[in-house]
Every structure is written in structure tokens, then in C-alpha cells.
From TrEMBL:
E.C. numbers: 2.7.7.19
Protein name: polynucleotide adenylyltransferase
Hydrolase keyword on record: yes
Organism (species): Zygosaccharomyces mellis
GO molecular function: aminopeptidase activity; metal ion binding; mRNA binding; poly(A) RNA polymerase activity
Broad EC category: transferase
Compositional bias per record (Polar residues), positions renumbered to this chain: 505-516
Ranges for domain Poly(A) RNA polymerase mitochondrial-like central palm: 102-233
Region (Disordered): 17-68, 469-532
Family: Belongs to the DNA polymerase type-B-like family.
Reactions that this protein is recorded to catalyse: RNA(n) + ATP = RNA(n)-3'-adenine ribonucleotide + diphosphate
Cofactor dependency: Mg(2+); Mn(2+)
Gene: PAP2
Record-annotated PAP-associated domain positions: 293-355
Amino acid sequence: MRKSSLSKAQRNFQVFNRNDHVNQYENLEESSIEDKSGSLDGNDDFIAFDNSSSEDEDDKEGQETVLGSDVGEEVLPTVNTDYPWILNHDHSKQREIADWLTLEIRDFVAYISPSRQEIELRNKTIRTLRHAVGKLWPGADLQVFGSYATDLYLPGSDIDCVVNSKTGDKESRPSLYELAHFLKSRKLATQVEVIAKARVPIIKFVEPNSQIHVDVSFERTNGLEAAKLIRSWLEQTPGLRELVLIVKQFLHARRLNNVHTGGLGGFSIICLVYAFLNLHPRIVTGEIDARYNLGVLLIDFFELYGKNFGYDDVAVVVADQRPCYIRKSDWSDLRLSGGSGTFNLAIQDPGDPSNNISRSSFNLRDIKKAFAGGFDLLTNRCFELDTATFKDRVGKSILGNVIKYRGTLRDFNDDRYLVANSAIIENEKYHKRRSRIVHDQEDVFIDPSESDGETLKEEQDSYLIQEIEQPPKKRRQTKSVNELMGVPNEDEEDDYNPLNRETTESSTLKNATVDAQTRRDYWLNKGNSMSN
Ligand SMILES: Nc1ncnc2c1ncn2[C@@H]1O[C@H](COP(=O)(O)OP(=O)(O)OP(=O)(O)O)[C@@H](O)[C@H]1O
Ligand SMILES: [Mg+2]
């Protein structure tokens, strides 16, 4: 190989070299297989799931209620489990514990992926609001960005909209109140809030028919650009959607996903996972295929951002489709704003290099602790179940140790391929029209009524239906990454190097160069070393 791809992988992590390596087994303790609370006794790093009050809020926020009477659907019973994605989906017979976790991640994603009714309901909600905005302000248009325009929404996600107008004056305080009043008077909005003084003024409300939370911002196109960019990332990056949805749910269950309370927003999560996948040495060198290694990648994600990332000195850059980690001191806008050299997350906005999109995530300490706890819980659970008998494993969940999902019973169908998402269609049309317009005009308004009649190509994502038990032939790669990176042996750990670890990674990553017996021996040896 391929010196270039090796040195590329090494270069990606140079910025970490100054940070002390953290022993990832330091806090590892045994937990009971039967422990469904997800807590680890004595693990200070772990942030427990919320107590029952959060369930109420889950229901309030979530489209877990969507299948209710409003849409004429049968109300399904509430499931009495925190991890319903294992119902009728038992993977306890998987030989490789990492494959079990990967399959559970896929099941979770299938479980929370939208039904036909949910997509139709979201489409209808947008249509109604768009129509209302056009009626109030004939020269204005409402478009969708954020997770509905990228297919990265959980059942409870809000819909982010933006109103752009020919006159460009709708961000004014009177306009915000005018729209809020109009929607309320037409019974198209309840729980309306006008937030006029914020850096980005918005109105927030709940659309009464769907019970979906909606945010409307005004006179800006950056979100529409970001939606297109993120969709291109999703096309190019296997595993991105799955890991983003898991991390979102992980943070949601811990109330760490709300930017207003210092949590990590959806946009920051996407950027972190995108950078992680693009810079992961085993992916960069072609040793593994992310689609078949979601389990270990999730563990690695938790380890990197929970234990090893140098938040004081390192920033994440995802611009120009080439993610990288840079020194904060090399990001001049960050340095000038005092964000360099302090314990905070810095992610450069791909649409605006001066903007740190995670600057409001001031609760980084808890976010980091939660990720570190996720690593400990998952590795511990993997180890326990790996050494358990097949009989004892039946009905158990690995993923359920770190995330929960409560609410109305869902099915495992991903109906995104049956019903087109109108937010995506409209966003694609917007960009097509925009690309036809001369770009030297600032703040150009694209007239939405100028439809080009194109329909969205519905692509079947074939990898979702492949069997994990039959991994694809490796495209390249004859040596292990450790060899390629010149990592001598497990005892010489010093600074963080994600390849140089006596951890789950070296065994659980699906590595066709190691036979099943060797992998089994690894786990047994790990058990011995852990009991010392
Ligand atoms: N700090 C920020 N700076 C600039 N743009 C942002 C910022 N936060 C959000 N955005 C814009 O708003 C969009 C929606 O952000 P959000 O954090 O709500 O993510 P999301 O994908 O919609 O996730 P969720 O489903 O949790 O709402 C982003 O895609 C981005 O365009
Ligand atoms: Mg959103």
C-alpha cells in the first residue's frame, strides 16, 4: 500500500499527539446482565437516563403520538420495554459480539425510521404552512431545512423552516408577530412563541394537526445550503445516517441534545460523526467497511469524543468536503473570540468559516462524560455477553445498555422509499433554480412558484438489505492497520493513537485477516487481563 493513504491516516491525528492518553479501562466495572436501568455502579462518568418525567416529555415532543386519532390511525399499545427494537429481532446467536451490536444498531434505525403515515403527515404539515405563508405574504415562500430536509429526523424531531421573500423584510419584529398571529388565528399553530430578539429571530409553535414542533426563521438561505451539503455527505459516507441517529437518541435520552441548555444540537452531531467516519484510520485505509462495523464504530466514537479528544486545543473542520482536525490556535476567528485554549467544543460551520456551530454547547463536561460512559457501558456489556452462554444471551440487548426508546409500538419498516419527502424535493428544486441564476447577486430570491416539474429520484439504498453475516469482499488491504501504521505492540501506548489500543477495537472490528478462533481467544484473554 499506498503510502499516501497511510500517511493521510497518520496526519489526521497529529493534532492529538500532545494529549495524554487515557486508559479506557480505568473505570470499567462489571454490571449485571439483568440491569436494565443502564447505570453502572460506581461509574462516575456515567450520566444516567432521565427518570420517568422525561417519558412524559418524550411523548409530548415525539411523533410517538403521531399514530393517534389525529391521523385516523389505530392507536397501538405502549411497549413495556426500553429497547423495543429487539422485539422479534434476536441476534444473541451471533458469534461475533460486534456483529450483534451492528445488527442492533440497524434494527434501531429501522425501528425509528419513518412510516408512510409519518412522512405524509410531515409533508402535509409543510404544505399547509407553505400555503398559509403564501396567502399572508404573496411574495414570500416557506422552505424546509434541518433534519426533515436531510432524512436525519427522529420521530420527535421538529421541522425547521425558513421564510424568504422578494422584499427581504420579513425578519422584522412586526412581521414575526404578523405571521404568528395569522397562523394562530387560522388554527394552524398552538403554543406560539415569538423570539424576536435572538441572533436568529424565530417563531416557534406546535402544528395542531400533526402535533409537530415547528421553528420558522426568516430571510436566510444558509440552512437550505447546509441541507444540500449534508445530503451529499450522506450519499458519500456509509454509516453516517445510522450513527447520527444513534448519537442523537443517546443524547436525547440524557437531555443533552438541547442547545438552549448547553447540549449538543443535531447539526453539531452530524459534523462530529461525519469527521469521525472520514478520519477513522481503518476506514481511510480501506480495512473496514463502515456498514458492517457500526458497532465498533459507535464504541470508537464514544471513546474518541468521550475520552481522548483534546477539546482545549483541537477543533473540527468539515468544510470543502474534507474534514480534518486542526489546532484551535490555527483558526483565527476562534482565537480572536477567545474560544481557543479553553475547554469547549469548536466545529467550524461548513457554510461560514467564522462561525463555531457548537459555541452554545456549554455543557460539554456532561456531554463528554456521557460519551465516556457510553464507551464503558458498551465495552462492558460486550464483554459480559461475549462470555455468557447462548442460553443466557437470549432476549438481551447490547445497545439497550446505552439508549432507550419509549412510546407507541412502531414497525421496522423504513418507508422513505415508498413516499417521497417533499422537503427534499423542494430543496433540490430550490438548488436547481439557484444554480441557473447568476451568482454575483447577493440575497437573490428564488421564486418558488417557478416549478420545474421534476420529481425526486427514489433511490433504493441497497446496503440496507444486505445480510451482515456475508460481509463484502474487501476492496483492498492486505495488512492490518497496525502494521501499516508501524504500531509496534500493545505495551507501548503513550499519546492517543486510535490504532494502538488494547481495546475492543483490535478484536471487534471485523477483520477478515483474523480467523474466528483468534478473535474468540482475544476476548478470553481480555477477560483474563481485566480480572487482574
Ligand atoms: N450554530 C449554528 N450555526 C449555523 N447554522 C446552524 C446552527 N445550528 C443549526 N444550524 C442550521 O440549522 C439546521 C438545523 O439544525 P439542528 O441543530 O436543529 O439540526 P437538525 O438536523 O434539524 O436536528 P434535530 O432533528 O435534532 O432538530 C442545520 O442544518 C443548520 O443549517
Ligand atoms: Mg432541527
